[in-house]
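# nightly structure sweep
# worker-07 picked up a monomer target from the shared queue
# config: single-sequence mode, recycle default, output format = structure tokens
# input follows
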Amino acid sequence: MSAPATPGNDEAGVQYGSVDEYLSSWAGEDLSRQGVAALINGVLDAACLLSARIAAGSLEGDLAHLVGSNTDGDAQKAIDIASHELFIEILARAGAARVLSEEADAPVMLNGQHFAVAIDPIDGSGNVGLGTPVGTIFSIMPFCEAEDPFLTPGKRQAAAGYVSFGNTVDLGFSVGEGVLLATMHPQTGEFLIVKRQVQIPCDTSELAYNASNHRHLHPAMSLYLQDCLTGKEGTRGRDFNMRWLGSAVGELHRILIRGGVFFYAGDKRPGFENGRLRLVYEANPIAFLMEQAGGRATDGTTAILDKIPTSHHCRTPLVFGSATEVDVIASYLNSNPTSE
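# output follows
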């Protein structure tokens, strides 16, 4: 029996070589670049193994089984711990000097010399077992013994990226020369580039936020949402749509493809003054990718890449996506600077 035709448009199946080929060409004989390439390839090796385990779901045990909590009291599932251990093992072989993971209180000291990796092994693990996206997000920082690489501004990143585990396994990454998107071939495990030099549309009418937090927001953010939700009859003059996946990686992947704006602001609840997302291994790599793709990422008013982390696991409000809309949010916050 012949295979059924693959549905799609005229651009379906367009590929621009493999990520491994791209990184090899980019690195050339430069030892520093080779170090970055080795770490990205290490992340992809681990992601390939992790994708198979996620796809198996409960057939091989309960991935969502609670096994403890991290330093900030967030519940840890079996998949959180297993993915953390997997990435530490593979990044050690790939040459990392230090690894900061959401699932460990302190950075893990390894034997590499030149680069450190900050990583959230499983972002959106609350989605595990529900068929909605989860992901891995990572940041690669230059390393030297004289300073803690994880307590320096995100603009020092050498590279950043993510892997989204959804109906396909997708990669977005940048080594500072634009953003590339790739998809893992389901038979070979090879990541094949499907789009180069990604550019996010400047304007958008699509919002990603947790609407259940609306009542807790400070007045400036509430006013922004009110003006959006009144639609074309209101001051914004157009209708807005909303998406919320419960996974920053999933939101990031969608926004890179079609634009949009995501925000998780600080709010009035105790412990939520700085939102819930981590600066070092969530906001920083997202911001790096945003700026490489013509988007923007701020804490509402200040560029994320300019912020200096106060601790390894510090949190930050985060607004990212289409540049014009990120700027609009900043204008609302600047008009009422005491509200955040």
